[in-house]
Amino acid sequence: MAITVDEFIEDLKKRYGVFTRRDPFEVLIFTVLSQRTKDANSYKASEQLFSRYNTPEEIADAPLKEIEKLIKPAGFYRVKANRIKEIARVISKTGMPTDLGDLLRLPGVGRKTANCVLVYGYGEPAIPVDIHVHRISNRLGFVHTRTPEETERELMKIIPKDKWILVNSLLVRFGQEICGARPKCWMCPLIDRCPYPDKKLK
Length: 202
Known about the structure:
This protein is mostly helical and 202 residues long.
């Protein structure tokens, strides 16, 4: 019998534990940096940026070239530097948004980024859908969707709201270690209950 999404979340929770909250502004900037790059690159870029500039006001006033230099490890650094500086400019005037609607009004901020801030910055229930969440949810048959937005909507229907906050961190970790683009099915503890037809048994 295939594993249910509720059982899956509980299994991963026992395996990986839960995440810790961080500063909402830092979460926001990290998530912007993480677009189209590996986490290791995002962490390096974020660390370099915040070691030099700590607040939205400081980043808003910082020379664009300096921001580009600091975040270069994240890739697409010119586009990201412009976006980060503009986001910081808005926040320095209006304050850090605390709800989904206001987060989505920030320059270049989409649902995944906004939901990441809600979850990791404010501890609010939301389901940020990145490539791991989208891929694994479809691979295990929890949803049958084509876009991250569709996946978010469908997962919100089938996962209890008190567990939304766990979904991204647990599935990202599971995707990084086991269920990636080339899944390591032979080491997956759920292999006997996984409906994925193209298991990689090595």
